[in-house]
Amino acid sequence: MASAVNRWHDAIGYPLQTISENFMITVTDLKKTYHMGDIEVNALNGVSFEIKKGEFVAIMGPSGSGKSTLMNLIGCLDTPTSGTYVLDGDMVSQLDDVELAAARAAKLGFIFQQYNLLPRQTALRNVELPLIYRGISGAERHRRAAAALEIVGMKERTDHKPNELSGGQQQRVAIARALSGSPSVILADEPTGALDTKTSAEIMDILQRLNREQGLTVVLVTHEYDVAAYAGRVLTMRDGELVGDEKQTPRMTTQVVTMAGVAGK
Questions:
Q1: pLDDT of residue 261
Q2: pLDDT at 263
Q3: H-state helical runs in 152-223
Q4: Which of 5-14, 65-74, 125-134, 253-262 has the highest average model confidence (pLDDT)?
Q5: Is 60 within the bounds of a domain?
Q6: In the chain, which ranges are continuous DSSP H helix?
Q7: For residues 26 and 86, what is the distance between their CA atoms, to the nearest angstrom?
Q8: Does residue 235 form part of some domain?
């Protein structure tokens, strides 16, 4: 994979990130209150933590714990009621909608449970789409998208549409789409929720390799302990509060999955 990663960064013109002591994400006393008529719902109650560049962090918690609200704030999809959020050195907690959209495009790559691929578009075209909105030329889009698909083992399936791919292959295309814009952070929301155990392990292997070999910061939301075990740190949410912050030795996939061979799974 390392050679594919290097070719990808050569294609997009960005150097490899290096893991440092600098913080990629810093949230301080983050609060989010929703108003439902006369009722106030405190979704987040003063959450504070830091995530270093190059960390792989899982956010866990039961339904209603605040983890989805926290993910929306980290993903620049919403703004906090109070508190501060610094993303890669930029204060984003007080940005307007246009500025938030710019921050999302420049800094973040998203991976969702349901893939969210356009059904009539090929894998290559799906990966290119975010780059179209950024005004990147056709030749450059193609180069970046093809390199990202190679990383996730989908080089031989660039012309396939989603209905011609398995669930695991569709998720790999979604990961390539997240990578195509050279994000600082990958945000993965239940990325294995629709997959079987074996395919889930392969997807987690890809995320681990991107984290270890490329230095990408990965933030994963999950309710599954088996999935959170692949992260090096677990944040636990309950009732809108951060109740746990533990480092751990990540679980490594027991099978050897080469990036070139993943596409056939």
A1: 31
A2: 31
A3: 167-179, 197-209
A4: 65-74
A5: yes
A6: 2-12, 67-74, 97-107, 123-133, 138-151, 167-179, 197-209, 225-228
A7: 5
A8: yes
35: DSSP letter: E
pLDDT 10s digits, 138-175: 899 999 999 999 999 999 999 999 999 999 999 999 99
Q: At what angle do helices 197-209 and 167-179 cross, to 10 degrees?
A: 20
Order of strands, sheet of 185-189, starting from the edge strand that comes earlier in the sequence:
108-112, 185-189, 217-221, 56-60, 233-238, 241-247
* Within a domain: 245: yes
Cα(130)–Cα(109) distance, integer angstroms: 10
Write the pLDDT tens digit of every residue in 174-226: 999 999 988 999 999 999 988 888 989 999 999 999 999 889 999 999 989 99
Burial class (CB in 10 A: 0-12, 13-18, 19+), 215: middle
- The CATH number of the domain holding residue 187 is 3.40.50.300
Amino acid identity of residue 212, one-letter, is R
Q: What is the pLDDT of residue 194?
A: 84
